[in-house]
Design a protein that fits this description.
The structure is a single chain. The chain is mostly helical and 149 residues long. It contains six helices and four strands. The protein has helices spanning 10-24, 36-43, 47-59, 83-95, 108-115, 119-131; strands at residues 63-66, 70-73, 135-138, 142-145. Helix 1 (10-24) packs across helix 3 (47-59) and helix 4 (83-95) packs across helix 6.
């Protein structure tokens, strides 16, 4: 796991780092995650930021909390269209110019239909891209490829 600067969206970066350790097998099923305090120190963030990152991983089913024991890795199950795969495909469209700065992204409903996923999965994919700074939300209008300064 690596630490570094923690800008806005740090919880997503921490979740990505921990998820990467689970996906690559650095943290295997049954392994105990480092304590919240250790993660706070490693990533130089507040406890709430770490808890938010861990909450994402728990919602994804990658970890489980056991009172008095801590958080344990459940493992990594690949599914045809996890939110990470959807986010990666959208990122690729942004990077290769299929989606340009200012272009609207597909709606949650369109992603649900295209990938056959639940709204929460589509929403997670879009939130992942937003946390990475690639897209921005214009409330009431949709999500758009972020303009570069």
């Amino acid at each position: 796991m690596s630490s570094g600067s923690t800008p806005w969206g740090a919880y997503a970066q921490i979740a990505d780092a921990l998820r990467g350790c689970i996906v690559t097998g650095e943290l295997v099923a049954g392994a105990l995650l480092p304590s919240e305090a250790a993660l706070c120190q490693e990533f130089s963030v507040a406890r709430n930021t770490v808890r938010r990152a861990l909450g994402l991983l728990e919602a994804e089913g990658l970890i489980q909390t056991f009172p008095g024991k801590g958080r344990v890795v459940c493992g990594y199950v690949t599914t045809p269209y996890t939110y990470l795969r959807i986010a990666a495909e959208l990122r690729q469209q942004i990077e290769n110019g299929e989606l340009s700065c200012g272009d609207a992204l597909p709606s949650e409903a369109a992603l649900m239909s295209q990938y056959g996923v639940a709204r929460g999965t589509a929403r997670q994919a879009l939130a992942h891209l937003e946390a990475a700074g690639l897209i921005e939300v214009q409330h009431g209008k949709g999500r758009f490829v972020r303009r570069r300064p």
